[in-house]
Each structure stands twice: as C-alpha cells, then as structure tokens.
C-alpha cells in the first residue's frame, strides 16, 4: 500500500542534503512518502536511488532556484561551521556568503518557485552570550556580543527567515544544541575522536558545574518534520517563530562524553585546566591563524562551550509542535560506542 503523502508534501527540498543532518532528514522524508530534492556543493558519499540530487553552491541563486522547482516545503540545513572570531577578510566573506547570502537566496527562490513553507535549521548559539543562562526560553533576545563567525551569521540568517513569514510563505526556525549521533560526518564527534585517538585528551577544561544542551540528530529530524506539519496546520501560531530543540538532558560536556570515552577504552582525565588560560590561548591561536598560522586547535567559542552554563527548556516546542525527544543520551551513546569502535580497532 502506498504511503500517504505528508500534508507538507509531496515534494521537499533539503539544502545541505549531503551533510550529517541533511542525509538523516532526507531519509526520514523518503520514509514518510515524500519526493526529495537534495542540494549540496559536494556529492553524497552514499547516494540514495530515490533522491534527486542537485549539485550547486548555495551562494548561486540559479542553483538554488533550480533545486526548489516544484517543491512545496524547503528544509534549509546548509551552513558552514566556522568558530573563528579573528579571521581574514576572505574567510569572513565566505562564511557570510554561505550562511547569510545563501539564506537570502533560499527565501527569494521559495517565493519565485511558489514554495509554501520554509523550515530553517538555526542554532542555540544565536542567544549564546558570555553570561550564564539556565533553563532559558525563546523570550531571551539575540546575543549582544559574539565570539565567532558562526554565531553572528546564524543570527543574521535566522532573522532573514523569520522576517520572511507571510505573503504566501510560512517560515519557522529550529535552534538545536550540539548535533550528535553515530555517523562518520558528525562534526561534533569527528574532531573529538580524532584527538582522543591521538592521545591529546590529557585534561578537561573549566569547572565541573558547567552545563550545556545537545541535540541528537534523530530528535532534530523529528522536530523538522513536526515544524513542517505545524506550518500547514496552524501557520498563525508557528509562522515566524523560533524553537529551541534539545535532548532535555543538560549536563557537563565532558561528563556527557564519558560513556563514549570509556566505551572506546580510554579514561576521562582527572586533571583540569582553568578557563582563562585556555581562553587566552584560543584567542592567541585565532590571531596566529589570522597572520598565516595553522587553524586553531581550539577557539574562544569552543572554550566557552566547555566552560559555560547555557541551557534552554523547550516548553514552546512541546506546546506548538508536539515535540518530545525520542532518543536519550544513554541510548544514543550506546549506539555511538558501537559505531565508533571501528576507529579504535583500525
């Protein structure tokens, strides 16, 4: 029996469709009976026979317009993650071009192609001030000061998307924490496991009471689908709104990683380095990179992630989208240990 097409279908576009989130979301949409278009600048390493792939740069309007043709809903996941705060003008132009100009292209193409809904994958970093936030909500304003390009550009892009709501286009933004899961291209784990295997995890950073939110990719994919449904069912409620989407298990990042570290046969270091020296080293590394040095091992933003108190509740997503996390850290970490053991065994 053929699957009933979701109300936000029949055809959807996923930008950044060859990335970690994009591939997971594309598969979920296929499973729900959608026709899926995927736009990415790089080819998919494991293409699906039922996905229509479009190769193109998000900064190229014509490429975006071609991919959106005949799509009723667009899931805009494409972005470049650059956590530098001190950077060369060429780097700044690239990041703004992809994250901001690319989003402008998506909104314009949606209107020209007649797409009805746009779900934007934003980030909790749009509210990531240097001060602590515990159990915050969507009433918190955008950050006043940013430590990196990613936070600045994601904020600018989210503003563009939410302001575009109306005149035939319904929009919403989702704000996940660190996106994680068992995949070779999970950014959050790829760098960490590389350093772990090289023996570079010799100390933790900052206080033990630092806590932050993370978001399993399966939880985020569910929220993307629910947001698309809600934009059709109750656009007057969801249209133009942003939603925090997290696992609802705020915890210290290194303690959160402990099951993975120990599951791969390593130990969490007992030694801890204070925040301020590492923050200074991160700033110094960014400055050296600016004048031609290597890419920083750790930026100020990454130090802040390890040492901050920064958590959000998701009452609004529960109320408006009907969202509840389906994967908790215990289950997700067990899957990750099994998946990433191949790196240790090799």
Q: Any overview of this molecule?
A:
With 346 residues, this protein is an alpha/beta fold. It has a single domain, classed as Rossmann fold (3-Layer(aba) Sandwich). 44% of the residues lie in helices and 16% in strands. The chain contains 12 helices and 14 strands. The strands form 4 sheets. Strands 3-2-1-4-5-7-12 form a 7-stranded parallel β-sheet, with helices on both faces. Helix 1 links the parallel strand 1 and strand 2 (35-40). It is globular, with a radius of gyration of 20 Å. It starts with 10 loop residues before the first strand and ends with a helix.
Observed structural traits:
346 residues, alpha/beta, Rossmann fold, 12 helices, globular
